[in-house]
């Protein structure tokens, strides 16, 4: 029997994976990529009797290869919080999918494991912008303020590292990060001792300093839009910058548009109280998806940019 792990390369996917590997052991083939690289199950070459654990990637996007694996006799355990569509009823599928806005994959894994590696779940929740939920979990685990601060930084920086068009845009590949992380039971110790993480953190500080000088390309009441330059640092900061801008402009929707080789990639943040969820808005465009407050479009053709801007401002304008 061969074990496979297909996981999103962001903080939530990495921290969910870390919890499971600390519990079950480090053995298994890792399949991952950049943040937007979510059609991962088509790369799983499992056979009857093998096991595949899927973390933080949309079931809807991976439906056909998932069905292929199930019919081939592969046992699949699926943890996710993104739009799933109809979940297949199959004896080989164990589904842990919850699309509630206050849930992420790390929290789902933490619940399933009974808190066995909870501090990593705290970091994953911080990385997935669930700061309130992360702090509650940290308090429940009796973490002090300094430990909680370190886990928040860790989550944010792991998440930042996953953004890019290609793996070459990233400071550290998610697969390499996963192999570094498994050496540490304690995420605070990982943050303080890992040279690989220190390299990532240094890059984060430099990139965010450049990002803070950006100004919105368009702004209407209730909605802001930023156009990013065509540079690796700009592709890396897109997710963290979107979260920071959402906190700085409470009540407003934020869109960040970044050029890629064949068009644009878009990140959206929408306040929970808005009538239209971010995920619902983004799914109006091919390759769009996500969750209630944070979503994106993996490929927006250049010919659709003007329409996207008009629809975004029309949908989220207030007053």
Primary descriptors:
2 domains; alpha/beta; inorganic pyrophosphatase (n-terminal core); Diaminopimelate Epimerase, Chain A, domain 1; 319 residues
Produce the secondary structure layout:
Elements: E1 3-7, H1 11-24, E2 29-31, E3 51-55, H2 63-71, E4 75-80, E5 93-97, H3 105-113, H4 118-127, H5 131-140, H6 145-161, H7 174-181, H8 187-193, H9 195-211, E6 218-220, E7 223-227, H10 232-248, E8 253-260, E9 263-269, H11 278-282, E10 288-290, E11 294-300, H12 305-316
Helix pairs in contact: 1-3, 1-4, 3-4, 4-5, 4-6, 6-10, 9-10
Structure description:
- The protein has two domains: 3-203, inorganic pyrophosphatase (n-terminal core), CATH 3.90.1640; 218-316, Diaminopimelate Epimerase, Chain A, domain 1 (Roll).
- It is built from twelve helices and eleven strands.
- The protein is of the alpha/beta class.
- The radius of gyration is 19 Å and the shape is globular.
- The chain has helices at residues 11-24, 63-71, 105-113, 118-127, 131-140, 145-161, 174-181, 187-193, 195-211, 232-248, 278-282, 305-316, and strands at 3-7, 29-31, 51-55, 75-80, 93-97, 218-220, 223-227, 253-260, 263-269, 288-290, 294-300.
- The model has no long low-confidence stretch (mean pLDDT 95).
- 47% of the residues are buried.
- The strands form two sheets. The protein has a six-stranded mixed sheet with strand order 6-7-8-9-11-10, sandwiched between helices. A five-stranded parallel sheet has the order 2-1-3-4-5, with helices on both faces.
């Amino acid at each position: 029997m061969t074990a496979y792990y297909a996981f999103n390369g962001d903080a939530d996917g990495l921290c969910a994976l870390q919890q499971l590997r600390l519990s079950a052991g480090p053995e298994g083939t890792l399949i991952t990529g950049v943040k937007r690289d979510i059609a991962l199950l088509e790369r799983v070459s499992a056979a009857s009797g093998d096991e595949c654990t899927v973390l933080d990637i949309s079931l809807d996007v991976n439906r056909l290869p998932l069905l292929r694996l199930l019919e081939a006799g592969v046992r699949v355990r699926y943890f996710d919080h993104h739009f799933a569509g109809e979940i297949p009823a199959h004896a080989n599928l164990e589904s842990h999918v919850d699309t509630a806005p206050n849930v992420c994959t790390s929290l789902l894994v933490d619940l399933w494991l009974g808190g066995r590696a909870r501090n990593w779940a705290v970091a994953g929740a911080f990385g997935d912008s669930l700061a309130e939920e992360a702090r509650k979990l940290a308090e429940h685990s009796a973490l002090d303020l300094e430990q909680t601060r370190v886990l928040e930084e860790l989550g944010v920086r792991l998440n930042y590292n996953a953004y890019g068009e290609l793996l070459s845009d990233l400071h550290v590949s998610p697969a390499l990060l996963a192999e570094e992380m498994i050496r540490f039971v304690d995420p605070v110790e990982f943050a303080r001792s890992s040279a690989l993480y220190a390299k990532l953190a240094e890059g984060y500080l430099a990139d965010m300093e450049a990002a803070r000088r950006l100004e919105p390309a368009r702004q209407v009441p209730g909605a802001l839009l930023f156009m990013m330059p065509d540079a690796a640092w700009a592709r890396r900061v897109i997710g963290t910058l979107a979260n920071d801008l959402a906190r700085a402009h409470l009540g407003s929707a934020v869109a960040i548009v970044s050029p890629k080789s064949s068009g644009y990639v878009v990140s959206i943040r929408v306040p929970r109280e808005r009538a239209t969820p971010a995920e619902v808005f983004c799914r109006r465009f091919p390759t769009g998806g996500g969750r209630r407050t944070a979503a994106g479009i993996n490929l927006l053709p250049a010919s659709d940019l003007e329409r996207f801007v008009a629809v975004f401002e029309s949908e989220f304008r207030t007053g």
